[in-house]
Amino acid sequence: MFNRWLLTTTTAAVLALSALSAKAETPAQGGEIVVTYKDDITTLDPHIGYDWVNWSMIKSLFSRLMDYEPGTANLVPSLAESFEVAPDGLTYTFKLRKGVKFTNGREIVAADVKYSIERAVNPKTQGPGAGFFGPIKGFDDLTNGTSEVLSGIETPDDATVVFHLSRPDATFLHVMAINFASVVPKEAVDAAAGDFGKKPVGSGSLVLKDWTIGQKLVFERNPDYFVKDVPHVDKVTIEVGQEPLVALLRLQKGEVDIAGDGIPPAKFLEIKNSPDGAAMIVDGEQLHTGYVTLNTKVKPFDDVKVRQAVNMAINKERITRILNGRATAATQILPPLMPGYDKAFTGYAYDVEKAKALLAEAGHPDGFETVLYSTNTDPQPRIAQAIQQDLAAIGIKAEVRALAQGNVIAAGGTKGEAPMIWSGGMGWIADFPDPSNFYGPILGCSGAVSGGWNWPWYCNEAIDKRAAEADAMSDPAKAAERQAAWGKIFTDIMADAPWVPVINERRVVAKSLRMGGPDNIYIDPTRVINYDAIFVKP
Amino acid sequence: MARLLARRLVQSCLILFGVAAITFVLLYALPADPARMLAGRSATAQTVENIRRELGLDQPLLTQFLAYLGNLVQGDLGRSYAQKTEVATLIAARLPATLTLMAAGIFVEVLLGLTFGIVAALNRGGALDRFVMASAFVGVSAPQFVVALLLLYVFAATLSWFPMSGYGTAAHVVLPAMTLGILGAGWYARMARSAMIDVLNQDFIRTARAKGLSGRRVVLRHALPNAILPVVAMIGIDIGQFMGGVVVVEAVYGWPGIGQLAWQAIQQVDIPIIMGVTLTSAFAIILGNLVADLIAPMIDPRIRSH
Fold this sequence. Notes:
The complex is a heterodimer.
Chain A: H1 2-23, E1 32-36, H2 52-61, E2 66-68, E3 75-77, E4 80-85, E5 91-96, H3 110-121, H4 139-144, E6 153-157, E7 160-164, H5 172-175, H6 186-191, E8 206-212, E9 216-221, E10 235-239, H7 244-252, E11 258-259, H8 265-272, H9 277-280, E12 281-285, E13 288-294, H10 304-313, H11 316-322, E14 327-329, H12 352-361, E15 369-375, H13 380-392, E16 397-403, H14 405-412, E17 420-422, E18 428-429, H15 440-443, H16 461-472, H17 479-496, E19 499-511, E20 515-516, E21 535-536
Parallel strand pairs in A: 1-10, 1-11, 15-16, 15-17
Antiparallel strand pairs in A: 2-3, 4-5, 5-7, 6-7, 8-9, 9-10, 11-19, 12-19, 13-17, 13-18, 13-19, 14-19, 20-21
Chain B: H1 2-29, H2 34-39, H3 45-55, H4 61-73, H5 87-122, H6 127-141, H7 144-158, H8 170-200, H9 203-210, H10 215-227, H11 229-243, H12 247-253, H13 258-267, H14 271-299, H15 301-305
Helix pairs in contact in B: 1-14, 5-6, 5-8, 5-11, 5-14, 6-8, 7-8, 7-12, 8-10, 9-10, 11-14, 12-13, 13-14
Keywords (chain A): Signal, Transport
Family (chain A): Belongs to the bacterial solute-binding protein 5 family.
InterPro entries (chain A): Peptide/Ni-bd, SBP_5, SBP_5_CS, SBP_5_dom
């Protein structure tokens, strides 16, 4: 009896252990890796950089009060050791971790946090992220230039930072985790004389050692990083100006470890079906929705029936095939990974007959002529053409206007200009994993202004009010209630149909066979490539 | 000579001013707004306005242009909108790579072009002539990326004779220079051929032959110097083109030249960089032509007397 017990328990334990070790590889320390990108790195200034290439580098170069667990959307304190939120949601008090140093050797104090946030907001920095800090008291004074500081940030002692908000904001902790909230040393900013983006000094897991403009950047492990055993790699060399196709050939030859731009559509199936394909391709979901905007201020899209008809007319499955299956058809505004996504909501099903009927009901039995804008880099024009064909099937003759990105953005932000825009190449990827990030600038009334990003010029005051209410629920105990409220807001918007949510595109990264770790640290929902977590297999 | 130089310098300044003015107006006439490109998608209207004001984009076009010119005459090309780095620094960093590729590319072009051109001229109407001219036609019509990828695939990816990508050693420059050489040699071959045919029909060549000079000496010593003038002029134009960057070849081989800088700047509506690259390229064209004009009298004494 005893023997049997022993046998079963041991077997179970062994099985459990082996399962565990097979699942979570222990990251090995050491190793030097090469990562390639086509575009040059524009800047590593955390208060300015805002593209998906420099985003992950800035993440690892600097630290912030808050961060996320690798590969997840779970907020954790980082530079902060602990934090407290006042019951009214208007005061946040952070206690700093002790003994953390910038890589120039100076210890980080509360005044550095205050200086950094003020720098992100100060118009002279020309930072794109200033608006995220809008809830902090004194924001308007600093933005208008009547003050040089944010009166809402107090530093009672070197280890304490207190934020006073002018309105409750449930996303505030997320804001403290975005790159724009990175802490920088003032002396290094001043010494860089306007070019801190090329001479960054932070307190993150990596240190910039060398930057040869137009060729490569060399990052080394920060031996004093405050998280033990992070990062795992000793050296990361970023080679820029590398054509994705060539990067892939070099990866196959073992010269490159991560091809940051992924796999060109033309090569995707070949790589996928090659013997090592499965191990080389990292194919992960991101917080992205690709959509067509329907301009509610332009005839005939001012009629909700027309907008609903267009929603039913587009064959989304066919568009996922254009992308070699690297996308799934979208039913709603939020992407599936986003808290608040409603699995039960099916949206408008593809139904040509019903779309035609609805269009006839709206007084357009023979359709109408319109214009569909798109960016001009592959595969976007092909997707726009697919949409054009789908529209033709219900009688809508859409002229496709494929332009450079800047021109499409300009048309979208000009009142009465662009009836329809396919968002591909410019689609919304969330700044942080909170549903509110999919509302304000792109669907809220505040974004429906000249130069804004609310391209359908959609403004529903009742929804705006509910959004403000949801964002004011900053009590962590109400998180589930708030998430449900936001979920309902987005499915309710679909009744007005300002968008056709088309696809949720996955990101594809190609990595060499020696790179270890789960897929979600190569396509981390908040970082893209998580340089803190990736490692070279021993 | 000094008067010629002075006149050309004044002309050059006027041309540069014209290029600056036209480029400036064209860039600002674009519907794309640099402030909004910089501000990104999450920015509030206030942020966009602040960025526009900080960049001076809220000023009237003429004020902006005069400010730009004022800085330019002091040698200041301004700072990149997106990178905040001095444009002069960004261009200077890419200058060695651009000059290397220019020199190597023009060397291969001229070598291949002259050789084939002369061979074709000497075999005028023959099978060799037709073959060379057909090849030249293919060369000038082949798309850059096809030739670049083909060479890369064969000589770097498959045979591993040369590195696939990058910059730094002599081996790195071979494939990009060959690509540019093959593509450009066709023009030189056609030009060298027709110039040689012209010269070969002239009396002094017949005299040289009649004197009993060897065929090689007639071609290299008597015919070639007389046929080379248009080639020198063309090199002058080529220098300018290379200085503006050879975007496709640079992209395929990961060559850190000015073309990649310009291409990315255009995507980002980074006006100071676009202006800087355009002016550098225009300056190089002017300089190249000036040098070509100065060299011409040395090759052909007849020009000196004019």
